[in-house]
Design goal:
Strand content of chain A: 15-25%
Distance between the termini of chain A: 66 Å
Oligomer: homodimer
Strand order of the largest sheet of chain A: 2-1-3-4-5-11
CATH topology of the largest domain in chain A: Rossmann fold
Largest sheet of chain A: 6 strands, parallel
Number of strands of chain A: 12
Structural class of chain A: alpha/beta
Helix content of chain A: 40-55%
Largest interface: A-B, 58 and 58 residues
DNA sequence: TTGAAAGCGCTAACAC
DNA sequence: GTGTTAGCGCTTTCAA
């Protein structure tokens, strides 16, 4: 390459990396030569000296069972797609690509840490489906720059983005009260997931502020089926309920079905409020009133934080908490 | 590292790469030293000499609009998750990670080709949402090993996996006839997508074989809403229909809603058969009878083909066509 | 069976 | 403002 342009390799490097102090004429010559021979710099050689790969790992942790070879469940959840979309929207303009990794077993977790230390990627974006995921601690110990999608359990010095789930649930409570509903209940998510806990607690607290001391609830697993079944249990316990807060849209879709099956019309008999504002919310009939969870924005912010940590290794961990919003549609 | 073990770097390299002709004692010493100091080889240095990265690109092409910064639509489609799951199931045991890339514009396509030539990845797995995607040709021209998810339009010397869509549609036709349905119709996918065309043509042909010369159809866009609307058009045109083949499960879900909305019970009044056997099929009420599309297996095969091409650059392109299967549930 | 030595292609001091 | 030089950390002939 340098030969073709008749200059030194150092100059070519300077041109490619846009370093100033290059004579415009020479620069043009080099650019011309690059175009002619279709030169592309070798990434490995560059990484070797810069110690940067220009890639970040997107780690899905706690996804899939221990022996499940296909981590399909989380992947087919629209939530995952939204996270990926958000990350990409931020990373792509910067020429950085996400490398997908799974860490669902002890072994795969070790592999992920090892890959990161090898320099497969400059840092990690971690999305855990389980609380008490040991990966954040392992990443911190390995001194790998990393950012989590939600606050880790325990005290781990690591950056994260999160949603104010309690505030979102309170929005739902306020809405139901505003609609004049007096016999409300909730289909909550799996209570070993902190976000599910926070949504339930936030809902209960807000209802308490409105004078409702007790709110019945039934636990689901964030899936369509579990939402349908949880709704049926609630209906059995409290046939006269007139409002329900469901901790995610997918379960709300199932709940909608259960309600219809039991002859309730929505929102006339029972108002339903979901959570996430995912694609399921608009695919429902009636479309779901729900709480917006700005997953894409959060994912983009997560990427931003990671790049900051990569650029400035010693940096103090930071947290960015997003605010939810009520999205009114037809269901409540 | 070599110093710690008291041997040469060459020997360490041999041990790490499992090359025979290493004295067992020395090997043990080296392994010991590796464990003690927690040594991990540097990937960039290794790639520089081996000219392999141990990564493959997973390229989503034609995803998102030209100006859409967030390629969310395809990402939140469960189809994408299934592809990723299948790819990972094959690649992960081999220590290879997929790097996510989007190629939805002229510019991003050029970037993808450039990244691949730079050695960001050893090859590409291409999933196009549009027919006539120019990327396959560009990849072939750049001599980048690549495998497609579906047969490319035009004649391109490139490997691909595909489903026998026609056979799948025929399975649906046979089932409807077997159920004694005589006034059948179809909600097809966007007819600029080859798979959608093949499903419709396959259905029409099979119905013709059963003596039904004419099959009304209405076109949707593979989304819930479009399925619902297409079903309504069909119902308006042919209120007495008693069987419908919907070209994917998501649209079938919408169709189910339209049917219920118009007072038809499924499968009593109208039998409904979907396509894909996606998670939507079991989330429906009633659960969908559908055509199994082994996306995960196909994606895994795609990865296998790619590794073959990477190992043996000159290899002739190959195609692997998968067979669909009828999955009977409650809707038809 | 092991070691010495030569790069892989690039960037970054450092001199000019 | 540009070229020279020295590596980055590994694999891989080639000798020993």
């Amino acid at each position: 390459m340098a030969r073709v342009a008749g200059v030194s390799r150092a100059t070519v490097s300077r041109v490619i990396n846009g370093i100033r102090n290059v004579d415009p004429d020479i620069q043009a010559t080099v650019l011309q030569a690059i175009a002619t021979i279709g030169y592309v710099p070798n990434r490995a050689a560059r990484s070797l000296v810069t110690r940067r790969t220009g890639a970040v790992a997107l780690v899905l942790s706690g996804a899939g069972g221990d022996e499940d070879p296909s981590p399909s469940p989380i992947l087919t959840d629209p939530f995952f797609g939204r996270v990926v979309a958000g990350i990409i929207s931020f990373l792509r303009p910067r020429g950085i690509h996400p490398v997908l990794m799974f860490a669902d077993t002890e072994q795969s977790r070790a592999e992920v840490v090892s890959y990161l230390r090898q320099g497969d990627a400059d840092g990690a974006l971690l999305v855990s489906t389980h609380a008490a995921d040991p990966l954040p601690v392992e990443l911190v110990e390995a001194e790998v720059p990393a950012v989590l999608f939600a606050r880790p359990t325990g005290s781990v010095p690591i950056s994260y983005v999160d949603l104010d789930h309690r505030a979102g649930a309170a929005l739902a409570a306020d809405r139901l009260v505003e609609l004049g509903r007096r016999r409300v209940a909730s289909v909550c998510g799996p209570l070993d997931v902190p976000a599910a806990q926070a949504r339930l607690a936030g809902f209960q607290d807000a209802m308490a502020r409105h004078g409702h001391a007790y709110v019945p609830y039934s636990e689901g697993g964030f899936t369509y089926d579990s939402g349908e079944r949880a709704m049926e249990r609630l209906l059995a316990e409290r046939p006269d309920l007139d409002g329900v807060f469901v901790a995610n849209d997918l379960m709300a879709q199932g709940a909608l079905h259960a309600l219809r099956h039991h002859g309730r019309s929505v929102p006339e008999d029972v108002a339903v409020i979901g959570f996430d504002d995912s694609s399921a919310a608009t695919a429902c009939r009636p479309p779901l009133t729900t709480i917006r969870h700005p997953v894409e924005d959060m994912a983009a912010e997560m990427a931003r934080l990671l790049l900051d940590h990569i650029d400035e290794p010693g940096r103090t961990p930071r947290s960015v908490i997003f605010e939810p919003a009520l999205i009114v549609r037809a269901s409540g």
